[in-house]
Amino acid sequence: MRALTAPLVVAGAALLLAAPAAHAQGTLSTQGFGYPPGQISTRSQGAGAATAEIDPVSPLNPASLVNWGTSAVFFQASPEYRTIDIGGESQKSSTQRYPLAIGALRVGPATYLSLSTSTYLDRTWGTTTETLIDIGGATVMSTTALASQGAINDVRLAAAHAVRDWLRVGLGAHAIVGRNRLSIVNTFGDSSAFTPIVDTSTIAYGGGAFSAGAEARVGEHWSVAASTRFGGKISTRLNDSTTLSRANMPTRFGVGVGYLGLRGSVLAVRAAHESWSNLSSLGQPGFTAHDGWDLSAGADVAGPRFGRNVVQLRAGVRRRTLPFEAAGSDVDENSFSLGAGTMFANGRVVGDIAVIRSSRTAADIDAHERAWTLSFGLAIQP
């Protein structure tokens, strides 16, 4: 049995740096180094992510921190429930995500500091396969369970300042950190004769980046915002010791335009591009990541009153290309969302909820993934 252990250890390290096929993971969305939740707050998710460049809770544009208006903390939970159809067969799975936590501190009349942590790439999946193998002349059923847990996270320290009533600017420094823990459990049909094999490997990630952004109020009713994240290296280490690979962090830029002419409301469109291909060298030779566009449109409008507070109603649509291939095919994601939010406790607590319906397809393979994501956000203002 010891002869089988070494190949499993090697396979474990390889799987952590490769992009397993869709039929192996049972999902289209968590290929490669994982699924990008987008670093979008519940509030902005309800509007299809269209307001992300002007949303102070979404840690994308550091200039938007001025829009907090006060000191606050925010926490978000976003469970996802998905179904994938492959070759006429359906599989269901779910994952619990806590993709965003952020705190903002007002340090002057027009200056804000913020510390946030958000999920950059989530790589949580599991799969089980069964095969007949020969061990010492005996044919037995071998069941191999592979599982990956962990994520790459973006920890951002940012500052923003309102230079004029109509102009805000911001800068951010990012630490890219995280772990993926892969476990391989191999069991055999005759458990009394063959001892199960259990092996685990951990890949640690470390890197850095910088971001900058601005938001300008144009005329009486328009807001135009833009941001970029650039620079920095990222590396992988096996079991906190051996460096496996290095790459450049993807460069991202985004632009958003919002119409503010309706009281308490915003109508917005957004476009963002991320150079995910920079991560290709982080995987094994032949591993491919693709640059992708993220396009969205949505609305966040003042609705009915809940007691003395107005309920914000949100809706939006979004289309983007995910960074990692499934069985050699690009994965496209289309989604629509609905959301709502209001204040409690005399305006000191803000609760948001969003429901996102996503459809993910890969053109050259017979696979289709559908997902429901429920996003809950809670902001507390002292």
Summarize the structure.
This protein is mostly beta strands and 382 residues long. It has helices spanning 2-17, 22-25, 42-46; strands at 72-77, 80-86, 89-95, 100-108, 111-122, 125-135, 138-164, 167-188, 197-218, 222-230, 233-238, 242-248, 252-259, 266-274, 292-306, 309-321, 331-344, 349-362, 367-380. Strands 1-4-5-7-8-9-10-13-14-15-16-17-18-19 form a 14-stranded antiparallel barrel.
Average pLDDT figure: 88
Q: Please summarize the sheet with the most strands.
A: 14 strands, antiparallel, barrel
Q: What is the name of the CATH topology?
A: Porin
Roughly how much helix do the residues carry, as a percent range?
A: under 10%
Rg on CA atoms, Å? 23 Å
Q: What number of structural domains do the residues give?
A: 1
Please give the alpha-carbon distance between the first and last residues: 60 Å
Number of separate helices? 3
Shape: globular
What kind of assembly state do the chains in view correspond to?
single chain
Name the CATH homologous superfamily.
Outer membrane protein transport protein (OMPP1/FadL/TodX)
What is the CATH architecture annotation? Beta Barrel
Succession of helices and strands: HHHEEEEEEEEEEEEEEEEEEE
Structural class: mainly beta
Report on the architecture of this protein.
With 382 residues, this protein is mainly beta. The chain has one domain (2-380): Beta Barrel (Porin), CATH 2.40.160.60. Helices cover 7% and strands 61% of the residues. The chain contains three helices and 19 strands. It has helices at residues 2-17, 22-25, 42-46, and strands at 72-77, 80-86, 89-95, 100-108, 111-122, 125-135, 138-164, 167-188, 197-218, 222-230, 233-238, 242-248, 252-259, 266-274, 292-306, 309-321, 331-344, 349-362, 367-380. A hairpin with a 2-residue loop joins β4 (100-108) and β5 (111-122). The protein is globular, with a radius of gyration of 23 Å.
